Amino acid sequence: MSEFKNVTVKKAANVFFDGKVTSRTVLFPDGSRKTLGIMQPGEFEFKIGDQEIMEILSGDLEVFLEGENGWKRIKGGAQFTVPARTTFKLKVHSLTDYCCSFVKA
């Protein structure tokens, strides 16, 4: 899906790591939410509540998921799923455009 229709977008940005990771929240009529964002090169660690599906629209990174062995390379056009109530790490190698979908448990 290249665009979202009939949604609400929160104007205030979500800003992490001194602005190296930013996103905007998109709310859907069914109550679901996504964020659309940009990550600059760097290393980041996130602790999450809900399950997340990270769709990488463009860019190049590595992800380390809690409970898995080693880093996995992810490039634009790929996605990965982060289990609920876990921590994951990213090594972002180039400017990365992403869409994160939150899945309520």
From TrEMBL:
What domain of life?
A: Bacteria
The cross-references to CDD domains, in alphabetical order and at most eight, read:
cupin_PpnP-like (cd20296)
- Annotated keywords: Glycosyltransferase, Transferase
**A GO molecular-function descriptor:** pyrimidine-nucleoside phosphorylase activity
- E.C. no: 2.4.2.1, 2.4.2.2
Family affiliation: Belongs to the nucleoside phosphorylase PpnP family.
Q: What does this protein do?
A: Catalyzes the phosphorolysis of diverse nucleosides, yielding D-ribose 1-phosphate and the respective free bases. Can use uridine, adenosine, guanosine, cytidine, thymidine, inosine and xanthosine as substrates. Also catalyzes the reverse reactions.
Record protein name field:
Pyrimidine/purine nucleoside phosphorylase
Source species of the chain: Candidatus Manganitrophus noduliformans
